[in-house]
Structure formats: structure tokens, C-alpha cells
Design a protein that fits this description.
- The complex is a heterodimer of chains A (104) and B (215).
- Chain A folds into two domains: 62 residues; 42 residues.
- Chain A is flat, with a radius of gyration of 20 Å.
- Helix content of chain A is 68%, strand content 0%.
- Chain A has 104 residues and is mainly α.
- Chain B is an all-alpha fold and 215 residues long.
- In chain B, 78% of the residues lie in helices and 0% in strands.
- Chain B has seven helices and no strands.
- Classes of the chains: A mainly alpha (104), B mainly alpha (215).
- At the A-B interface, α1, α2 and α3 of A face α2, α4 and α7 of B.
Chain lengths: 104, 215
């Protein structure tokens, strides 16, 4: 299937990038960025996942039809998490989690 | 009957079509896996939003060194898996077997480290249930964090075990010299699954281990 043999040195380069990003995300967790700590951590994780998908999983070199399934997965995950949080955050639950915080 | 005729299932025109169908089939399965893990990630997002302080306090009980080491172990296993697919593509059986064994060794190492961490949680009464102990005021809410911790890492570890089983099957087939440069779809498609499990951990590591470490 449209064979395109990827040179092993590219895999090693991707691996090196993943190692660097892992060390970066671990180090940056100790820096106080306020609200941006989880955002930076998730951005780095998305970058790492993208590298794995494009190169280790060969998506960059293969049929574009694959993108339909990847997009479907990402879209539905976004809908799930997005609507769960929109619902929860718009109900005023956040300020009154009384049953769980008062009891010990 | 030629070798390729044996490898070709009757419903396909040729090996390339069969390979492409298998490839897309695995991606459809992985999309359902995104939904499967997605339920836990959505629950995690909701409860972390509700109880941020308890989640941060729970996260600090995890050993960041073990989590980071395991992340690196899995990244290395993804490299060896990618190299195994490459060796299958170019038809080097010996190196294919070597890289498959290497990937499995790294997978076992990951599970070993996970086992050490789990044992540590049992010793320190951090397993949700009647034996759970945690300083006030987070005694109850931290239990939610550890429920997510065990559900998510446990389900991930289960996927690792399935991956090791699939790699064992590949190893046997590689040993029997079943894979040739035009006929190595199983290696590539199993690789997709292995890399997916790696990606799940890439998200679990910052979400579970790296909450508010700066305080």
C-alpha cells in the first residue's frame, strides 16, 4: 500500500524529540504558571501525541482516509469533554460541593 | 498456490487492498478506544474542576520519578516498535525478532514499575475503600482522585497486557518466517495499537502526576 520506507534515523529523531518534551513537561510542572500549568502540560502532551501519530504510526505517509477516523475520534472526545464541562460549570455546582468538603 | 495467494483472504482483490482494509479497521477500532478512555478522561476533567485542591494533594502522593521513568520507557518501546515495523518492511527477520523482543522487554519493565507503584499505594493506605487514609480536609475528595488514578492506570495496564499478547503472536509468526517485505501488515497494524497505548500514557502522565507540583 503506497509503500514508503521511512529511514530509521527519522524514528530516532522523533524519539529524541519525545524524550526532550517529556523532560520539559516534568521540569515545567515545578514552575508556577498559575492557570497555564495544566494548559502547557496538555499542549506538550498533544504535541507528543501528534509526533507519534504522524511518524511512528505512519499517518503522514498514508491515505488521507485515515484522517476521517482520527478526526472522528478527536471530535467526539471534544464533544464529550466539552459538553460535560459546559453543563457542570453552568449549574453553579462549583461553589457548593458541600457534601464532600464538610464531611471528613 | 503461491505464497501471496495463501496470505490473501478471498474477499479482497489483492494484498494491497487487504492491507489497506486492515489498516483502516485498526484506526476505526482506535477511534472507539478514544471513546472508551474518553469517558474516564471526561469524568476526570469534571471532578478535577470540582475538587482542584484535593486532586493536587492526591497527585503529590505519586512518585514523579517513577511516572517520568515509565513515560520514557514507553517512548523507548514505541521507538523499538517503529523499528520492528521498519525491519519487517525491509525483510530482515533477525532484526525484526530482536526489536519485537526489545519492545516486549520494555513493556514488561513498564508493568514492573507500575507494580512497584501500586504496592507503594497499598502500603500507604492510598487505595480507595475502607482502608483509605488521607489527612483532612481532603480525606474524602482525595479518594476520588485515587479512584481515577487506579481506574485509568489499571485500564491502561490491561491494554499493555493485551499489547504484550499481540506482540507474542507477532514474535511466533516472525520466528516461523511468515513476514516478507510485501506481507507484513500484521506487524504494522499491531504497531498502531502499541503506539496508541503509548499515547494514552502520554496524557495520563501530566494529568495524574504533574498537578500543581510548584507549590
Amino acid at each position: 500500500m503506497n509503500e514508503h520506507v521511512i529511514p530509521p534515523r527519522l524514528y530516532v529523531a522523533i524519539w529524541a524529540a519525545l524524550v526532550v518534551l517529556t523532560l520539559l513537561t516534568t521540569g515545567i510542572a515545578y514552575v508556577d504558571l498559575g492557570l497555564f500549568n495544566p494548559i502547557v502540560a496538555l499542549t506538550i502532551a498533544v504535541c507528543k501525541a501528534t509526533l507519534v501519530v504522524l511518524f511512528f504510526m505512519h499517518v503522514y505517509y498514508r491515505t488521507r482516509l485515515t484522517w476521517v477516523f482520527i478526526a472522528a475520534g478527536v471530535l467526539w472526545l471534544g464533544l464529550l469533554i466539552g459538553f460535560v464541562l459546559t453543563d457542570a460549570l453552568s449549574r453553579g455546582w462549583i461553589l457548593t460541593p458541600a457534601p464532600w468538603t464538610t464531611a471528613v | 498456490m503461491s505464497e501471496s495467494a495463501i496470505a490473501l483472504a478471498h474477499q479482497f482483490e489483492d494484498l494491497e487492498q487487504q492491507h489497506r482494509a486492515g489498516w483502516l479497521g485498526m484506526w476505526i477500532f482506535l477511534a472507539t478506544e478514544v471513546m472508551f478512555f474518553g469517558g474516564m478522561f471526561a469524568g476526570y476533567a469534571l471532578y478535577r474542576t470540582l475538587y482542584p485542591a484535593a486532586f493536587a494533594e492526591g497527585s503529590r502522593q505519586l512518585e514523579i520519578a517513577w511516572g517520568a521513568t515509565n513515560t520514557l520507557v514507553l517512548i523507548c518501546s514505541s521507538l523499538t516498535m517503529a523499528m520492528a515495523v521498519h525491519q519487517a518492511e525491509v525483510g530482515r527477520r533477525g532484526r525484526l525478532i530482536g526489536y519485537l523482543v526489545g519492545t516486549m522487554a520494555l513493556g514488561v519493565m513498564f508493568l514492573g514499575i507500575k507494580g512497584i507503584e501500586y504496592a507503594h499505594k497499598f502500603e500507604h493506605h492510598l487505595v480507595p475503600g475502607s482502608g483509605f487514609e488521607f489527612p483532612a480536609p481532603f480525606a474524602r475528595n482525595a479518594q476520588i482522585f485515587f479512584s481515577f488514578y487506579f481506574a485509568m492506570t489499571g485500564m491502561h495496564a490491561l491494554h499493555m497486557l493485551v499489547g504484550l499478547g499481540l506482540l507474542t503472536a507477532l514474535l511466533i509468526r516472525a520466528w516461523q518466517n511468515e513476514f516478507t517485505p510485501g506481507h507484513h501488515a500484521a506487524v504494522e497494524i499491531t504497531g498502531l495499537y502499541w503506539h496508541f497505548v503509548d499515547i494514552v500514557w502520554i496524557f495520563l502522565f501530566p494529568l495524574l502526576y504533574l498537578i500543581e507540583r510548584h507549590r
